[in-house]
Amino acid sequence: MAENDLAVIPRGRDFWTAFRRNKLGIAGAILLGGMILMALLAPLVAPYDPRQTVEVTLEDIYAPPSPEHLLGTDDGGKDVLSSFIYGARISMFVGFTASFIAMGIGGLAGLVAGYYGGRVSNLIMRITDILLVIPDLPLMVVLVALIPRKVTVFGARLEFPVLAIIIAVIGLLGWTSTARLVRSQVLSVKERQFVTRARAVGASNAHIIRHHIFPLVFPLMLANTVLVISTSILSESSLSFLGLGDPTAVTWGEMLHFAFSRGAMSGGFWWALIPPGIGIVIVVFGCTLLGNVLEEILNPRLKAHHLSPAYQPRKRSPATMPGEVKPAPASGGGGE
Amino acid sequence: MAMLEVRDLCTSFFTPDEAEMPAVVDVSFSLEEGQTLALVGESGCGKTTCALSIMRLLPANGAIVGGQILFNNCDLVTMPEDELREVRWKDISLIFQGAMNAFNPVRTVGDQIAEALRLHMNMEEAIAKKRVVELLELVGIVGSRAAQYPHQYSGGMRQRGMIAMALACMPRILIADEPTTALDVMVQAQILELLERLQKELGLAVILVTHDLGVVAEICQKVVVMYGGKVAEYADVDTIYNSPQHPYTQRLLEAFPDLNRPGDSLASIPGYPPRLSDLPPGCRFEPRCPVAFDRCQVEDPAVHQVAADHWVACHLVEKLALSQEDRRRRAEQTRAGVEGGR
């Protein structure tokens, strides 16, 4: 069976049939997809532009929900709903880019460590150990606070926006789980005979990694990335909430930061606090659901073994048409 | 000069605590152009390790610790990795044991056969595709199935696909590591026929790793009988079958069914091949050898040449040769004595 585990990674149509059956996965996809759609269509959906300068009177500050401002206004007299919709853009942008950085670094580190082994692997894995042991948030706080925003490199003055630094810090600290996952998978894939065969054919290490190992590891990396996105968004919000973000950018973390530091809590202005909180929860929850389901589908090893007592054979649903493709063939070639 | 000459090849595996497990010791043989050589022996006798050593494809814990593998007068053992990459598949290719696992499950068969063409011949995509179809048809697979994935092939087809892949770059030597295990007799016969035909058509030299002595008799010219990582006997096929000298070869042949005597029960060799971590001090076959004597327990036999093309590693051969020598000498002495007495 072990030999065929990877052969049953569902692809294409099989993947969709397996995915459609999973209600949690669909729920996650809808939550996340809805938020992404909202962020993309922000100028069309939002009633106001949060970057617009508005003249405010005292009544406009922390005004409760009303027909003009469906979710009330914040400490600056701005529409909370609009900020919430625009905030989704930056929050998710930061989350996604940081996770892609993490996936790139983690994937590369995992591939190299797993394939070459020995000292290289030892070095990379000790680095991940160290990063895993240090609590993430305090380290991020320290790094974001310490990294200079203006750097002179060879006479050229470079200035980084705070968001870029936040993205870099989250990305550079978030790759460890991906690296471990990829490494473990590579360790098992590289012992397979087709890798020896590729070597016999005269392929170089780089060729083997690119054409034979990466395609088998990629699905798992993808599932893992979706999970990393949720932690990245959470990290970004935490950093902004703690006041380390870009005060001019509209993000959910900034919204929480301002509402919290300017008396929304003590004044009972719940409309300024709850929407960004709910936004974060929806995205994180959506990512986690989707990521877990993707991982379950793409990594058949996580499924209960059919001999274990916990295993419950899936009942054939009456809706299954005779011509429909079955999601996971139980055995690929064990009997041959 | 033979095309491939293996001299005193020694390959060992190393356990994590650095203990050395000699899997192949002092194996020597040579292969001429167009010839078929068989490596036979029980499982765990070092046949596959020997085959993999020739292409230097040993797993990470194995290494060639001595000897030479001369191909066209170049030593493959000391050749740098990038030069070796050129030799692999272009000059020497390999049919893996159990072709089921030699294909990457997520790439099409055609794509994987084309891989060798692209790596060695810098072939353009379209030409490579045509060549893949040719190759598949050569082994009796419809060309349109190049676009299919390995799991869509049957076991025999995958084996034939593997052969097509092995032939992709027109190699001069083909190492076939048990090409017919896990196949039923009909498919097995087809595959062997195919190999034989291709060998005749393309002038390949073949090293066949097998434990099927029937196959060996049919298609091989030379035979290396291995036991416990060492050469037990090395001769041409007729000699091996008609006058085997090593007790292991004799027992091995006895263990093979004889069609002329269908009523006979098959002989077997009691016991198992030695474990690499627990080798006997003397001859490696001694614990199972029915004709072993004292010397076998303490001294490992050297390889004796008993005829022009016949090598045997057994003390008995030496004893036989010695006793013959002895008799001759004694006869001479008596003759001399008689003459001196006159």
Structure description:
- The complex is a heterodimer of chains A (336) and B (342).
- Chain A has helices at residues 12-20, 23-40, 42-45, 80-116, 118-133, 136-146, 162-173, 176-189, 193-201, 205-241, 252-261, 264-267, 270-298, and strands spanning 150-153, 156-159.
- Chain A is an all-alpha fold and 336 residues long.
- Chain A has a two-stranded antiparallel sheet.
- In chain A, α11 (252-261) runs antiparallel to α13 (270-298).
- Residues 1-7 and 320-336 of chain A have low confidence and may be disordered.
- Chain B has 342 residues and is of the alpha/beta class.
- Chain B contains eleven helices and twelve strands.
- In chain B, the strands form two sheets. An eight-stranded mixed beta sheet of chain B has the order 6-7-8-3-9-10-12-11, sandwiched between helices.
- In chain B, a hairpin with a 2-residue loop joins β4 (62-71) and β5 (74-75).
- The model of chain B has no long low-confidence stretch (mean pLDDT 86).
- Classes of the chains: A mainly alpha (336), B alpha/beta (342).
- At the A-B interface, α9 and α10 of A face α3 of B.
